[in-house]
Design a protein that fits this description.
Blueprint (H helix, E strand, L loop, with lengths): L4 H9 L11 H6 L10 E8 L5 E4 L2 E8 L3 H11 L3 E7 L16 H12 L4 E6 L13 E2 L2 E2 L1 H18 L3 E4 L6 H11 L8 E6 L6 H7 L19 H12 L4 E5 L5 H10 L4 E5 L1 H12 L5 H15 L3 E4 L2 H9 L5
Parallel strand pairs: 1-3, 1-4, 1-12, 4-5, 5-8, 9-10, 10-11, 11-12
Antiparallel strand pairs: 2-3, 6-7
Length: 338
């Protein structure tokens, strides 16, 4: 039978065969470019006033608000799963114009930290530093008319961060997007002797519709207007780089990109440009969409969870903040992702 020129080319000249390294599961895992580890996972937790409370968040199936006395049960589950980093968000009963519950020594986060650190010394506690859950108007700082007063807010953010650290926080993570807040927090912590406490900055935080379920969970939706005057316009790339570099100059130890899924280009660019670790926050809207689509039978939930996580690490994140942390830890244990 006559051999065609194409067949002869295939036979003689096909030296490069990328499929060779895809031929078995063992080989695919051996040459894997992106690897994950449970030590890089952070799990967000909501703690609220009251006792005996473990209430499911309607827009985030499988996620709960916990009172301080119920929080240890979830921390125990996390520790058993191998998830040893959590980020605490507080939900107070009382709110006022200046968000005094955020920096009160007896605030909900402060009390939760003191109790949790006694019982779970091996868990690493990170706290969200912001005002929106604590202000009666739902904005991330004190107001001057209908505008957030940037410089006055810095004083309260620094006060909040210090109160968290004094209550036992291992790291603070300011999410407010006020100009200069990293420097204000760093200087305040250093002056109080907490110069070894790291600051993870929500540096590249966009004004995103993906935050909707979180605002339901934390009761933090603004009572008027929006947050576009301080959170970033999602059309902008260079602005995100500017925010990241500015925060590093002010003392940020870790830079966060938020949300994750729709902003992987920013994760990639930031990770190449900075000399500090980069975190990606897979936010409430991403979680809720996966849960809703899986419930309808439209997607394979496990595979989507894994694919989303790997995409963040592949883009350049070293830290992944996710409501799916327990599931990912289980998948790693079972060898289904890694």
């Amino acid at each position: 039978m006559k051999v065609t020129a194409y067949e002869e080319w295939i036979k003689m000249d096909l030296i490069q065969r990328p499929r060779r390294l895809r031929s078995s599961e063992t080989l695919r895992k051996m040459v894997r470019e992106t690897r994950m580890d449970k030590s890089s996972l952070i799990y967000p937790l909501f703690v609220k006033e009251g006792t005996g409370i473990e209430e499911e968040i309607p827009s985030m199936e499988g996620q709960y608000r916990y009172s301080v006395d119920r929080l240890p049960y979830e921390l125990e589950r996390l520790e058993k799963a191998g998830v040893t980093k959590v980020m605490l968000f507080g939900i107070p009963d009382h709110k006022d114009e200046v968000g005094s519950g955020a920096y009160s020594p007896d605030g909900i986060v402060q009390r939760a930290l003191r109790e949790a650190k006694k019982r779970f010394p091996d868990i690493y506690f990170i706290t969200d530093v912001c005002m929106c859950e604590y202000t009666s108007h739902g904005h991330c700082g004190v107001l001057c008319g209908h505008d957030v007063n940037n410089d006055e807010t810095l004083k309260l953010l620094a006060k909040t961060a210090l109160s968290h650290v004094e209550a036992g926080a291992d790291m603070v993570a300011p999410s407010d997007m006020m100009d200069g807040r990293i420097r204000a927090i760093r200087e305040t912590l250093d002056e109080a002797g907490h110069y070894m406490t790291p600051v993870m900055s929500y540096a590249v935080k966009y004004a995103s519709a993906f935050y909707g379920p979180f605002r339901d969970a934390a009761g933090s939706a603004p009572s008027f207007g929006d947050r576009k005057s301080y959170q970033m316009d999602y059309h902008n790339r260079r602005e995100g780089m500017k925010e990241a570099l500015t925060d590093i100059e002010e003392g940020a130890d870790i830079i966060m990109v938020k949300p994750a899924m729709s902003y992987l280009d920013m994760v990639s660019e930031i990770s190449k440009a900075v000399n500090v670790p980069v975190a990606a926050y897979s936010v409430s809207g991403e979680y809720a969409m996966v849960k809703a689509a899986a419930k309808m039978g439209w997607i394979d939930e496990e595979k989507i969870i894994c694919e989303m996580a790997v995409s963040a690490y592949r883009a350049g994140a070293q830290i992944y903040i996710t409501y799916f942390a327990k599931e990912l830890a289980q998948f790693m244990d079972e060898g289904r992702i890694g």
